Amino acid sequence: MTARVDRNLYPELQRFGATDISACFNCGVCSAICPLSVDGASFPRRMSRYAQLGLRDKLLSSPELWSCYGCSECTDSCPTSADPASFMAAARRYAVASYDRTHLAYLLATSRVFAGVFVVALVGLLAAFMYSVHRPVDGSTLAFFEFIPSDFVHNLGVAAMVVMGVAALVGLFEMVRRVLRGPGVGTARAAIRKAAGAAVYAVGTESLAQARFRKDCADAVEVRPWYAQRWFIHFATMWGFLGLLGATMADYGLELLGVKATGTPVPIWYPVRLLGTLAGAALIYGTTVLIVRRLRKSDRSSAHSTTSDWTFLAMLWVAGVTGFALELGLYLPQAPAWGYPMFLVHVGVAIALVLLVPFGKFAHVLYRPVALFAIRLRG
Ligand code: SF4
Ligand code: SF4
């Protein structure tokens, strides 16, 4: 494979938050310290080298880009302050924008003004669209699905899933085309033989159970209680979001099965509601800790925050907090004035989050398992 040199690669990466990697003189200390760099692999040093030499294709074809989980051990050990961990994070943002053909990911990651205006406008438009079909409600307690018909909300959610799915497939196709064409995959037969095990590893062990993330925390010099460790905060945030998504889908499933209509009051211990409550609490806890750590810059991994970090975290946090407030509002003896406007914001943010999956920080949910799959496939 001929390597093409792209002189604009480094300036482009800087637009995505890359630090001054010209300071890197390829000593290899970061590769020696990185937990992922086993058997003499030159990772992450190799990635800085690709950027210095303008090897765009090589950079975007490296699945290791996505296996890095931002522990910052490489940055701590770098003798020239080249900050390879921040470089890796910037390279991932650059990769998301490169896989996206609409240019939206590029604008969201490189312009704070555009990202802020776009997200607020998207949520506002979704809320206004829902409000356009609202019905008058005169009950003393909140009745969200009398205010906006549940079918309308469900159909809007399904439409958002379809749009997101198409955009995600385009991005995934581009990523797979790059990372699976590298050396080491072997014959198609050998690849298929390894595929099942690689898929279990990528999706189950590493993505859902976060095995290596936990191991890294266990090895960390700075010891925190389990509930404050990085892996647990990430775990709570991820499972909080997945739990809320699961509860919403299960609720709709119960309606389709004729078990209960969406929005029907149920006791707190009703399984779907309990799942939603616990997942909401986990999401709020995880995102709040992440936001506080980024504000305080108290963590090595949260010292450099970019537009996409803030946009993603803020949307998750708003979705969690408004969901919880609405749940509490259901128990109030009198329907609060903020109930229905907050419902519109909550659903608007949740749908915007789904729509923006392939275009921002959330994209790692799609790309990381595929990259881990490729790495395992290559052995
Ligand atoms: S990033 Fe730092 S530690 Fe890694 S090779 Fe460059 S100078 Fe050495
Ligand atoms: S941040 Fe951690 S996992 Fe990523 S390259 Fe650096 S040492 Fe390796």
Structural notes for this entry:
There is one protein chain. With 379 residues, the chain is mainly alpha-helical. It folds into 2 domains: 9-98, Alpha-helical ferredoxin (Fumarate Reductase Iron-sulfur Protein, Chain B, domain 2), CATH 1.10.1060; 104-378, no CATH class. The chain is 66% helix and 0% strand. The chain is elongated. The mean pLDDT is 84. Residues 34-36, 44, 68-74, 84-85, 88 line the site of one iron/sulfur cluster.
Structure summary, number of beta strands: 0
Structural class: mainly alpha
| Shape label | elongated
Question: Can you tell me the number of structural domains?
Answer: 2
Secondary-structure element order, as H and E?
HHHHHHHHHHHHHHHHHH
Number of helices: 18
The small-molecule ligands in this entry are: iron/sulfur cluster
What is the topology?
Blueprint: H1 9-15, H2 29-33, H3 45-53, H4 56-60, H5 64-67, H6 73-77, H7 84-99, H8 104-110, H9 112-131, H10 144-147, H11 150-179, H12 188-208, H13 211-219, H14 230-256, H15 271-296, H16 307-329, H17 339-355, H18 364-378
Helix pairs in contact: 7-8, 8-9, 9-17, 11-17, 11-18, 12-18, 14-15, 15-16, 16-17
